Amino acid sequence: MPLTNTLRVQRAKLGINQAELGQLVGVSRQTISLIERGDYNPSITLVLKLCRVFDVAVEEVFCYKEDKENE
Amino acid sequence: MNRKTIFKMVFLMGIGGVIGIILSLGLLKLHQPNYIRSFVQIGDFFVRNSLAFYIGLILCLFLPAVYQYVKAKRNYNQINISDDRADAYEKAGEDSFNLSMLINGVFLILNMMLFGMTFDKTRGDFLLVMFLFMFNVICASVLEIVAIRYIQKMDNRLKGEPTSLRFHKDFLESCDEAEKLRIYKCGYNAFQVSKNVSLGFIVITMISNITLETGTFPIFISCMIMLIQVTSYNYYSFRH
Asked: Which residues are CB-contacts of B194 (< 8 A; sequence separation ≥ 6)?
């Protein structure tokens, strides 16, 4: 998937686990795990909620990289 | 439509025709007194031994379903150790949970099938058969309710009373976006599979009516199932 993220790093900075982060943004632990592994692209709403929890800009957490095939 | 697509369509139609001919010939072969007698004997065997089949269903399907549910619970209870290992436990728990619900569903359907196929109110142990059927259906329903309540207890975001008619709506609304996406994907794939299977059933019931004179009722039922599938899908596509 072209969307990469630093969710695990940001979470480690806050010192919370996946379940706690999930509770803060209203999703399951499994969904946080899927996002961290890059297996699920979150909606804009969830991205903004996550960035608000980490108190950082979207670009610091999520990065969109074009696939070479699509260029 | 290009030439390749047209060729592919004609080819698939040709294959369908060949399968139809083979199926018809096969069914015509079955339309002989020997085979008919064998089928009647098999039917009688099911009726005579229905009690054993009910007990067999409990042993072969319900107990494994309970075992898988217990296994799922054991895995889910290990989740809060660390994030890295939680995924592995969650995956194992989910697999066992889904397997448990699948086996339980099969158990419920086979019970209904057995009851429908072997129903005979003239038999002496009719009340016992009725009791076993009711018992099995209640067991399957209780397992499903208990499993859903356990999942809800584990994740208190998930809402919906399993015994309520609104359960599916409330449950879906309480799921997060990734869970909803997964449900929609599963639902769409299940719809496609069941639509193709319904089409297959229509063809089989039509051919068997022509060759074995099985009657128009099976054709009516299989067509109704497909009609409901297609119309309900389109109804919801208009709404959303």
From this structure: B229
Domain housing A25: 3-61
Cα distances from A63 to residues A27, A31, A47, B223, in angstroms, run 21, 18, 11, 50
Cα dist from B238 to B6, B22, B235, whole Å: 31, 40, 5
- Selected residues 153-172 of chain B with any CB under 8 Å from a CB in chain A: 155, 157
* Each residue's pLDDT tens digit, B34-85: 777 888 888 888 888 888 999 999 999 999 999 999 999 998 888 765 656 7
* A43 belongs to a structural domain: yes
Best of B79, B80, B81, B87 to disrupt the A interface (most A CBs within 10 Å) is B87
CB pairs under 8 A between A and B: 38
Q: Is a pLDDT exceeding 90 seen at residue B129?
A: no
Q: What is the CATH number of the domain that holds A25?
A: 1.10.260.40
Placement of tokens 């699920």 in the chain: A40
Tell whether the model's pLDDT for residue B169 goes beyond 70: yes
